[in-house]
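[audit] Reproducing an earlier prediction to check determinism. Same input, same settings, fresh worker. If the tokens differ from the archived copy the diff job will pick it up downstream; this log only records the rerun itself.
[audit] input (311 residues):
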Amino acid sequence: MSRRSPPEPKPFFFIGLKESLIKDEFIQHDKFIKENLTGQLKLQLEVISEYLFIGSGNYNFIQNPQLVYYSFFRSNDKIVIPGSSIKGAVRSVAEAISNSCLSIIKKKERYPPTHQSCKFNLKTKDKNKRITKLCPVCRLFGTTDYGGRVNFSDAKILETEKKMIEIVKIGNLFRPRINKQMRKFYENKKFYPLKNQMPEKNYRFVEAVKKGAKFETILTFQNITESELSLLLHATGIKQNFKIKIGGAKPRCFGMVEFIPFEFKILNDDLISFRDGSIEDIIKNKDLIIEIKELEIGFSEKEEKCPKGNY
């Protein structure tokens, strides 16, 4: 009688919810605060995992061998990483390390009322009052009816596209059926290609960017505090002991990237000229950082293989 092989270790980890959130009044967009910072940070983004995949929602096909694959996101026929994808990934990390609300909760998931998504400008029982207090990340990134004060531009690839693109076979993607009322992230495990490269049930092909590919994006920020900028830098993994994941196919161990800053400009008090900023000075401010060690451990590189089958 044959024995079943043990299940493959799942490539995700969980971070527990901390104490109740501390919410503050929102910052109005039409009123600049003298002590706040406005500027931009140019970033190079390098793919650290074996592959990166940003789905376009479309598919394509090739003749030899005959197969259909899910295509990488493009703008003007050029491969790019949408700024919204970068922003969403950075936001998820920022929520965890600052103990902010859970901005995205899937159906049937249940979390404590204290960590439900922030509601803004809603009428209370007192009709003369409205809800205007938000958690740190909603104040910075925005929420329904309140625009954020940070943005990432679409990241353009710096190398010749053809050299950095590969059609890769992976197992189908399903959301893990685990709800621990905790924040979920994907580990940095090893991806090994499947030996059988023929089309088959429960597998798909994706157009992925290979390890070592470099992109360039610009982070712009407006009227934010030094502690908010520090939170933002920590959440990208800049000058930290971890790298974050972006894009799709994270359950197949895709998407680990490194952000490398190369130009940091902040507007002067007159809002006309720029001065150089100092990332090292900014990240010393940890007023909004609650916990970061768990992410460092979870995102650290693992020797375990990424699961190949469905789970």
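[audit] rerun output stored. Observation attached for the diff report: Residues 13-302 form one domain.
[audit] end
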